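Bumping with the actual sequence this time:
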Amino acid sequence: MEVLTMKYNNKNDFEKVNVFGTGNANVNFAQYFIGESFLNPLTNGEFPLFNVTFEPGCRNNWHIHHAKSGGGQILICTAGEGWYQEEGKDAVELVLGKVIVIPANVKHWHGAKKDSWFSHIAIEVPGEETSNEWCEQVSDEDYFKKCFFRKAVF
């Protein structure tokens, strides 16, 4: 299967394909990101969906979506290219159409490749006694070692 490169280093080019829109600067959660991210709410109410956009090299901290039952997160990649990694596993390349299902209580991070803008829809899976725990940053050393210089995992 051939994978098309969909990297966008230029924000204007990226905006043309970012069908769910970049939204506004993610100021409320900026402390949990390296680089600039943006949030565009797609729904209101009980089942929140957000299009999250990352500038090149931006990634969120390691974090855990806790739940007594149910819970977790689903990512649907919508534009550009990024990375997802669970603790103790290799990073996975995120490209248009890729869906990542993250079970509750799994430590992970996600974000853009060094050379591409990236967006995904983030879905918080409903559950019982859910909460988010933000952990340490993904260091530049780990980011470049695990992501930028490795081959994609499909």
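The tokens above came from a reply further down the thread. The chain has a mean pLDDT of 90.
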